[in-house]
Amino acid sequence: MYDKGPLCFRHGGFFSGNAMKRILTKILTIGALPLLLGICWQLGSTWHWWGSYIVPPPERVWTSWLQLASSGQLARHVGASLMRVLTGFAIASALALPGGIWLGLHPAARRVCHSLLEFLRNVPPLALLPMLILWFGIGEASKIIIVVLATFFPIFLNTLDGMSHPDEQLLEMGRVYGLSSRAIFWHIRLPQALPAMYTGLRIGLGYSWRSLIGAEMIAAAAGLGYLILDGEEMARPDIVLAGILTLGILGIAADAFMRFLGRRYLWTERKWHHE
Question: Domains along the chain?
Answer without folding.
Answer: 7-46 (no CATH), 58-272 (1.10.3720.10)
